[in-house]
Design a protein that fits this description.
The protein is of the alpha/beta class and 548 residues long. Helix content is 38%, strand content 18%. β7 (141-147), α4 (167-173) and β8 (178-183) form a beta-alpha-beta unit. The longest helix has 22 residues, at 373-394.
Length: 548
């Protein structure tokens, strides 16, 4: 049997568009001799649909779309994911299901058994779990059909299992000789390799081929890398789709041969590709065509602008320099050089005249109080207002330029540099910003050398540097990784890193005090194991002191 992996980029709720992709890829696969094609988890409605599944009309459209797909894909068997009504006493009205259609009708339906509730996942909120599983026969093979998380509980791979049952093991014991898994497995750095090793462990344990078709594309904060894969019984990779783009690959179960497409070479290349894909899909799926980036001359805005250009094209990106009273000539020159290198439209809108008028208007209320961070924040908010005015007038989405290090400790201004519709690099630590900038410059040199080499500064007061307020970024980012991503205590961080206890506790205090800012931030493209936003849910009004 020849199996195709239809790695598509669905849009949540776009039933017509998603169905068209499924039908088109099915026809292509049939033309290449495929007997069966797999599509990702919930490919018909897009993943994650979240509260849309609570709308009866949304559930009905899933079924109606499946019927249309079945009628338009004769000559090939199709497996795709959709939302189905639940026959359950759990209180849940729907299930996450996979349908096998052939010759115009639905031949088999299997629902998801394991429903994840960690990090960004909240499937137990919406779906009822499958109570049973069955092996389905097709062209001489006995298919063990699973959905995403169903394959993530192998007792030989995971030291700590989240579930008491292993759907793959049960299906193989029931006679399954070919494991199929349709997935919507979000990207994080290093996850592609973990996913591959996990599937290799399953194949080796049960001595059967494992076929995984994963969603690709960006939906809100989540980025799906695709990287669909076929693993042989000996653990060898027999077929693999591209990462971060739609693809169609074929695999022959008799010859154990398939298409092998190139993969990103390293962490920087996969992270950069993910951010480009996430930016493109967020902008386009939200109905925008153009974006605006405030260019300070610093490395964060430079990287954001480069990602935007690679995602949307030079003609759809506008850079805006908004020099203030403390902006250096070097920063102004660097911003202009970046815009020239990228070939984007470039506007210069000084904020100093408006800033002067602002101070005059506020002076009676301030009653000659000394200047402090208030005046710094006014400058940032004037820039935010300028960008939002351009956004309203031109119908372009503003991209914020803050990184994860700044977002973590609140080194950002509400309604200022946090203004915008998408936080492109807010899950990228400052140290990684430099690595990604250097990676982008190896493709073509667009980010000025001076931007990379200069000491980071917000330039909101004379001779200001980031390290006036923060530890060195190489230290700060280590503390953030330990505390935010790995949930280590202050005591553990101090012991393992050798850092001063007062320093670690001061950083943790900044993180906790800044929660109110982060919960008002634009959606963040997630590329780390633990990003701010949907997958990290902490209270704002809380008092929690780190122990050391």
């Amino acid at each position: 049997m020849k199996i195709a992996l239809g790695q598509i980029n669905p849009t949540v709720g776009d039933f017509c568009g998603n169905a068209a992709k499924i039908v088109e890829h099915s026809h292509r696969a049939r033309a290449q001799g495929a007997d069966l094609i797999l599509f990702p988890e919930l490919a018909i409605c897009g993943y994650p649909p979240r509260d849309l599944v609570e709308k009866p009309s949304f559930v009905t459209q899933n079924a109606e779309t499946l019927e249309r797909i079945a009628k338009q894909t004769s000559g090939i068997a199709v497996i795709c994911g959709l939302v189905t009504p639940a026959q359950s006493d759990t209180g849940k009205s729907v299930m996450n299901s996979a349908a096998l259609v052939r010759d115009g009708r639905v031949e088999f339906m299997q629902s998801k058994m394991l429903l994840p509730t960690y990090d960004v996942f909240d499937e137990d909120r919406y779906f009822a779990p499958a109570r049973k599983q069955e092996v389905v026969s097709l062209d001489g093979s006995k298919l063990a059909l699973t959905i995403c998380e169903d394959a993530w509980n192998d007792k030989h791979f995971w030291h700590k299992r989240l579930y008491s049952v292993d759907p793959v093991e049960e299906l193989v014991r029931a006679g399954g000789n070919l494991v199929l898994n349709i997935s919507a497995s979000p990207f994080t750095i290093h996850k592609r390799e973990t996913r591959k090793k996990m599937l290799q462990a399953i194949a080796a344990d049960f001595r059967v081929p494992v076929v995984m078709c994963n969603q690709v594309g960006g939906n809100d904060s989540l980025i799906f890398d695709g990287s669909s894969i076929v693993i042989g019984p000996d653990g060898r990779v027999l077929a693999q789709a591209k990462s971060f783009e739609e693809d169609l690959v074929l695999f022959d179960t008799e010859t154990l041969k398939g298409d092998l497409h190139d993969q990103p070479a390293d962490t920087e290349s996969e992270a950069y590709a993910a951010l480009v894909l996430g930016t493109r899909d967020y902008v386009c799926k939200c109905g925008f065509k153009k974006v605006i980036v405030g260019l300070s001359g610093g490395i964060d805005s430079a990287l954001t602008a480069a990602i935007a250009v690679d995602a949307l094209g030079t003609e759809n990106v506008m850079g805006v320099s908004m020099p203030g009273p403390y902006s250096s000539q070097g920063s102004k020159d660097d911003a202009r050089e970046l815009a020239t290198n990228l070939g984007i439209r470039y506007e210069v809108i000084p904020i100093s005249p408006v800033f002067d008028e602002f101070r005059k208007a506020l002076s009676p209320a301030f009653r000659s109080l000394p200047e402090d961070f208030t005046e710094e924040n006014i400058q940032s908010r004037l820039r935010g207002s300028t960008l939002m005015a351009l956004s309203n007038k031109l119908g372009a989405l503003v991209l914020t330029t803050g990184n994860k290090s700044e977002m973590a400790v609140g080194y950002c201004t509400l309604y200022g540099d946090m203004c915008g519709g998408l936080a492109v690099i807010a899950d990228v630590p400052k140290t990684m910003v430099y690595h990604l900038s250097e990676y982008r410059n190896r493709i073509s040199r667009v980010i000025p050398d001076a931007t990379i080499k200069k000491v980071p500064s917000a330039e909101l007061r004379p001779n200001q540097t980031d390290q006036d307020s923060l530890p060195p970024y190489e230290v700060l980012d280590c503390i953030l990784e330990d505390y935010v991503e790995d949930y280590k205590t202050a005591e553990q961080i101090c012991s393992e890193r050798g850092y001063d206890c007062k320093l670690v506790k001061s950083v943790i205090r900044m993180i906790e005090r800044s929660e109110y800012k982060r919960q008002q931030a634009a959606p963040i493209l997630k590329i780390s194991q633990k990003a701010f936003g949907l997958g990290r849910r902490f209270p704002i009004a809380a008092k929690y002191e780190a122990q050391c």
